[in-house]
Amino acid sequence: MMERLNLPFWGTRGFGRFQMSSGYGPYAxxxxxxxxxxxxxxxxxxxxxxxxxxxxxxYRPDYRPIRTYLKDVETNDAKRSLLRAAVLxxxxxxxxxxxxxxxxxxxxxxxxxxxxxxxxxxxxxxxRELQAELETGEDDREKLSEPxxxxxxxxxxxxxxxxxxxxYGYNVVLAQMKSQPKSFKKKDSNLWRLTPNRDITxxxxxxxxxxxxxxxxxxxxxxxxxxxxALLAERELSxxxxxxxxxxxxxxxxxxxxxxxxxxxxxxxxxxxxTGKKKRVMVKDKKRPRPPL
Length: 293
Fold this sequence. Notes:
Blueprint: E1 20-21, H1 27-35, E2 49-50, H2 53-56, H3 66-73, H4 77-91, E3 100-102, H5 106-117, H6 120-135, H7 147-179, E4 191-197, H8 204-223, H9 228-236, E5 242-248, E6 266-271, E7 278-283
Parallel strand pairs: 1-2
Antiparallel strand pairs: 3-4, 4-5, 6-7
Helix pairs in contact: 4-6, 5-7, 6-7, 7-8, 7-9, 8-9
């Protein structure tokens, strides 16, 4: 069953997901070996982060029959809410917002900021939906005795809250920049980039979410060190959840440079009339005149 939320990393250092091996094989094959009194051996774990088998032994997946597994899930609201939230993240993809905005002038910047704010409402709706689902199991969180479920629930709640904090702040700083665009300090700057910042400027409610997110994520790091859950929590904590502006330069291509490489030598294979063998010949095209304007 899916016990992990399919959330992108947004605003943290690095994007996307990185490969790592938990030391367990595919669930179905491991379960088959477990029920048939066999052992699934992994010959090659591939690249990426690896974890100590002695540590991971305490986080072994539940290989009991699905009917037994689901019956156990129904006895605890935290387990049930985690599975439901995981399903929600796979039914619809969570949008990732842009962090770079071209700014050759204020009008272009405002247009880019306005377009970037459009998916924020969808993102916040999806995150609020996940938070509400997970909160239905919050009272039963302390009843969880299995380390795997404890780590899974805390990581899910911490990451959802962290993304909500970032989404709130994102919308605020974009609105501020749109109403009062900043001026570049460097002459060649033509781009504004959002970077993580420790300042949370979205009000008391968001600061409370920020505090709660830190509590959940730090609990994963402290209580489940050396596991994939701790690694993911550390990555979520690797950058502050506020936002700040950084000016930058993006190289632009001018129309005057088009066709600059049209006269580069080309390699052709031609047949030698004497030997009948093919040979390579460097051919340089004749310079084409510019068409009259």
